[in-house]
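Design request, tokens follow.
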């Protein structure tokens, strides 16, 4: 269950008309904080992002479905469980939590996230990257007028 503060921020982003990916960013940010503070670990930064996006979808953020062939996609379509309405297995939930706790914390480090963003951007076209940079410059607000995020 996401923190109340995260839900409030995501709701505020929605009210301001920001994109679903921006709203989902709040959940991803929370997940990275969870890993950094030692709540659980992740194998890599992609897993931390996937957990955050999954929480965002469950909270009602209108994101596209997860990529085909991933564990998240199976869970989302319902092919994962025979009966979608039954309660999740306690043993399985505990096993998943235990497995995450045994994973490392370096997947949410600044270095790992930086490496992930670089490799992700390499997969995009130059025009796509340029367009994103232009939009970022256009929609950027000054530091004084942007809302405080408690950093």
């Amino acid at each position: 269950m996401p923190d109340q503060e995260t839900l409030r921020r995501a709701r505020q982003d929605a009210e301001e008309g920001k994109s679903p990916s921006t709203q989902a960013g709040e959940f991803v940010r929370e997940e990275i904080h969870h890993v950094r503070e030692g709540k659980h670990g992740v194998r890599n930064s992609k897993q931390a992002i996937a957990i955050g996006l999954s929480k965002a979808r469950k909270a009602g953020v209108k994101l596209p479905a997860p990529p085909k062939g991933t564990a998240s996609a199976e869970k989302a379509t319902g092919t994962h469980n025979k009966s979608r309405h039954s309660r999740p297995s306690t043993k399985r939930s505990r096993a998943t939590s235990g497995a995450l706790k045994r994973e490392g914390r370096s997947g949410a480090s600044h270095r790992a996230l930086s490496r992930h963003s670089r490799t992700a951007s390499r997969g995009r076209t130059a025009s796509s990257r340029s367009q994103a940079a232009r939009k970022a410059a256009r929609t950027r607000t000054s530091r004084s007028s942007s809302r405080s995020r408690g950093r």
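Comment from the thread starter after seeing the answer: thanks! The helical segments are 4-15, 20-36, 45-58, 71-77, 90-102, 110-122, 126-139.
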